[in-house]
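Predict the assembly for these three chains.
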Amino acid sequence: MTWLRGYAVLYLLFLYAPIILLPIFAFNDSTIIAFPLSGFTTQWFSEIPNTPALVKSVQTSVIIALTTAVLSTTLGICAARAGAKYTFPLKAPILGFIMLPLVLPEIIVAVSMLVVLLALGLPLGSWTVVLGHTLICTPFCIAILNSAFANLDPSLEEAAIDLGETRASTFRLITLPLVMPGIIAAMLISFTISLDEFIIAFFLTGTEPTLPVYLWGQLRFPQKIPVVMALGTILVVLSIILLILAEMARRRGLHRTGTQDSGGFL
Amino acid sequence: MTAIVSLKDVQKYYGTYHALRGVTLDIAQGEFFSLLGPSGCGKTTLLRTIAGFEDISEGTLILSGQNMADVPANKRPTNMVFQSYAIFPHLSVGENVAFGLRKRSDLNTKEKAALVQDALEMVGLVGFEKRAAHALSGGQRQRVALARALILKPKVLLLDEPLSALDKKMRDQMQNELRQLQRHVGITFILVTHDQEEALIMSDRIAVMFDGEIAQLADPQTLYRRPISRRVADFIGVMNFLPANASGNKIDIPGLGAATLTPEQCPGGTPSGPCTIGIRPETMSILFGTEPAPARETNGTVHELAYYGDMTYYDIALPGVEKPVTLSMKNLVGRRVLERGESTRISWDDRALVAFAD
Amino acid sequence: MFRNSQTARGLTLIAPPALYALLLLAVPLLAIFAFSFWSQDFLTIDYTPTLNNYREALSEPLYTELMMRSVLIAGAVTVATVLLAFPIAYFVSFHVPQSRKSLWIFLITIPFWTSYLIRVFLWKVILGYNGVLNSSLLSIGIIDEPLTFILYNANAVVITLAHAFAPFAILPIFVSLEKIDRSLLEASRDLGENHVMTFLRVTLPLAVPGVVAATLIVFIPTIGDYVTPRLVGGPNGLMIANMIQTQFLKLNNAPMGAALAVIAMAIVTVIALFFIFLNRRWLKGRNS
């Protein structure tokens, strides 16, 4: 099966082609993004902190992403817990509806929310972006937390109650520690999605653009591109670190509950 | 008998499914009691209603003199050993055992540690308190689960198929240990099992359950020797069933001839007309050569045999009986193993017969 | 511990996410639906119900062409992505040792988590007239002049989206391949089939649910993609999402945009249902 291995390597090359180019152009001493390279520079990196609009957009995005992560993980915990432990009328349709944003083109989520917000006369701003991002991140959180809650042996909670704990203290002492890796993974993933999301932010942002919206504006100006490349490089490194952390958290969770590793996040 | 657990006409419905159909039961203080039955018979449901994990649809449950209707699981004087053991994977062995002591404000840290030590010693796990829970073997997990439950000195310890996850050797050993432990602590144990042998070995009394009802409640010997129905007899060990015909206390058994049965040989009531006679394989034997029969005897042919090493099981075809009867012989020194097709004499004792109404 | 209180607990827990989805998804979707039957003159909305938006959307060549193109591009992206992804999923599932599988899956998902916008832009850099691909090919002498059919057209959109949605296609196929009991393959070989026939008669049929899932997961977001057509599609690579955006933000014709959004959703739903139906039929045929 050597040809299959060869194909796999070529495919990985295809997957990584853009990401490999990113640092190359970020350190390239030219405003033209093309080969041949002209020389090495760290100028574009040092320009990042000196571009106030860029710094501001990073701040805006981080605040939005943090808020989104907390909100969507909280909603995800509720839904995953309800789905794993309880039966109630219309369970499947309700859960299906909450997962719907996963299969809805983002442009539709964006315009429909925009229409309602404008009709209600509400001002657009970071909070409207948070609302939209929480909507699309919650299904991802649920998908991750579902497996965390499903891996939880229900007799562990019963054992705690049997040993005298209340429902609330059982959740605190047993459930929460055991699903914590799932919670961390869900927060990291929703943070990453929110940080990178463009369409909804593009439609719902107010006067303070998020980072992707800011970048979108910069892509039209060739002289700004190298700085974008530098920033992109930093973002790639950061998201790889975040992903590794999330994966480690997930594995620790599997290890703790003693279950077998069964693949990645999705 | 002072009942520590008392159930009266307990009913349990899951929607339209009737899981417990009027269970009435008294369990004495210090008793080793087993709930035995096939899967889906309601034995686990019954155990979980005692623990408080399931509510009772109708009827009453009294534990140690107190009605449990409004008492939640965490306030009941029961503790449970779960089928999966439910060892908290994020806590060490010591933390697991100490788990239930958290709210005991009457104890200081030192006293709690001493209790944990005692509990670990009781189950033979001294020196394991720092061990991570997932680094334990099946037998060790079970011991942790036992220590964790017994440290709270419950009035009743509930065990949900605690040995089913262990291999045969370990299971035999734990059966012994559990029995000794129960005698040592003197706490009432209620064991749920589908393994009839396990129930016979360990219990003072056994309730056999079918379809949400108690079919028979008796001590192991009575249960084995005098099963109340053909279904119970079939579930506990091996029994031959022969069609027969009863008139008065005389029973005519094709293949074995006529016999007179005492009332206690008819635990389900004295039958009349067509009925079934049961006899256990080990109460019959093969007569070698001209050996005189200790009781009654008849002639037959070896239809099939299975050699088990210590025992040989023979299926003996009897004239006038459709199905061969099974009997077992110990493979004593010098005792021959018969061959298929060989003619032989077999003997039995009428006192071993049990009659069931059809 | 009573059953009705179990139900109450479940409902209490599900209420926050359900209400959230109701307020921020159901209400807006209904609003879009309502909007599509209204009309807008400059900045005032006329609430008289009308089918004019739909009539225009379905008769005006500009719109119908865009919709056709969106479906065709999304279809091409889906076919390309799934075809390219299957061998990878197969390779990782069948030819990578168990201990290294999660590393491979991890490697495959990493590019997906890096800025989408920048990735699309970099494809523009790769595929451009003076881009990485053309300059490399020129320098090794494979071509004499730069290729022009790979940027600012539908091809560029297909290549870029096939890259962007690769993990979405690989993961479901991988999961379905992982579920296949390996002794089935040995049984097929034992019964006299060679590797190729075993693949065709056992592996492939059992992987169908994964392929269907991959198809849907790629197709649905692709048909509504905005960034890629704008950045690398050129005038002939634009798709329905670009028009919806234009209607809402540039032409101030929200009702028309709403009608286009509803039509896009309808197309997605019909195609998705078709595939789900196919999958059901397939599973049913196998089980009976």
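Confidence is low (pLDDT under 50) at residues 260-266 of chain A. Chain A touches chain C through 85 residues (CB under 8 Å).
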